[in-house]
Amino acid sequence: MQIELDGYTLSAADVVMVARGTHTRACLAPEARRRLVELREWIEREWMRPDAPPVYGFNTGLGKLKDSAIPLEQIRMFQAMLINAHSAGIGEPLPEEIVRATMLLRANAHARGCSGPRVEVVERLIAMLNAGLHPVVPAQGSVGASGDLAPLAYLTGALVGVPQAECFYQGERMPARQALERAGIVPLEFPLEAKDGLALINGSTVSLAIAVLAAHDAHRVLKTADIALGLSLEAMRGELNAFDERIHAARPHPGQVTTAANLRRIVAGSARCTHAARVIALPDEGRVPAQTIPARVQDAYSLRCAPQVHGPARDALDYVDRILATEINAATDNPLIFAGASDGYEVLSGGNFHGQYLAQTMDLLAIALADVGSISERRTYRLLDPTMSYGLPSNLVAQLPGVNTGYSIAHCSMAALVSENKTLCWPASVDSLPTKSNQEDHVSNSTWCARKARTIVGNIEQIVATELLIAAQALSLVEPHLGTFPLGAGSAAAYAAIRERIPAALDGDRWLHADLAEALDLVRSGAVLAAVEDVVGALA
Predict the structure, then answer these.
(1) Is-contact 432 494, C-beta < 8 A?
(2) Of the residues 56, 154, 169, 495, which is catalytic?
């Protein structure tokens, strides 16, 4: 498959497809190529001469040095020094999928036709992407002010063949020039001309790449959280009145309405969540005072109010999607160049590189998702406590309690992730530390915001996976007593998908790490979601 980059029509789904699938190739759309060529011809005709007027980033220094003129004969040296000076990133390399998304998004931003790099630069970047040649880019070092300067300098260093730059290619880490040679991308040394370097490093593209992938994964885990809610309800024979369509129509937030509708479809046909099932006394209920026969009017908030918690996260994610759709097809460097009224162009200095949109949306996503993890942990805790679960065995131990511990430590790990998320969702977008001689006196921290949000998404995947694992154990333990009360069709599909990979722990404690890893893969791969959707149709 090939995706044409025109600067206007790239979608988040396209970005994910290229980032996670090396078989999808990119190319410049013919119209985008024409725009790049025409603009560059004008630049070289009007500005690449000794008497050219001062233009920021073409023939002047940057930041506080914006008033320092750069002679024509030193412009190529300036481009090389620019990349060297910005190669100040630190930390471990970004994952391959983030680097691939960054390369695609940077090329698409230039395809819009108002940044001014040579078309050869953009085509070389695309060639590297298509060849599976991924620059080594440190994760830390950007404040999201003039975009992601340091990370993008590493990408650019690999593109031009800086001797110290490195790439991952065919599973190996090697000098960029060696990777370029192996991939057949020539010349190995590729000097930059006026504006090329600044166009490549000036923009919040790394932040955007991380954000797009985080948002994509958040959609999947939110749907899976609804499935986990359904399994927990079935395990505790929950009340379904709280999910009645009329309740949510009376407070019609889209996310809340959607969550309740998803849940109704997942548990549709359930006999487990009925009064007839609830009056069956489980063995443990005899040891729990006043609960020999469950008497329930309404369930605890972690069950009953799930639409009012999952729902806001959905609405937040919808907002995030709208912002990302704009950012994906935005020109975010500086200065930008626009066609004038006559045959010429006009250069305008602005601030599209500033990452505040991305910073705030990622902080919003982080806060919303952290709460989804928090309520999942509360449901899971109830499953493990017979005073709250209506008679499920303590810690879901199948036999010999005391000898066997059950799932209490799995819950502890879950709680650790929930607490970690509470710290990670502290907003970084409200922090600003001036840099560059106070020329950049307000920064966004968009890269850190995006990295935090992505970490939280990963934690939520494990939290939801743990709830699924523990709810499935609860269902297995009550099967001898409640097997005549069938689960809802969606719940049954989820339970079957889990049991296909993870047997019930009926013979005592076993090495839990493997079960947790399998459960995580069921969530992260979308397998449990697909199993449910095969039965009930696509969840919203």
Answers:
(1) no
(2) 56
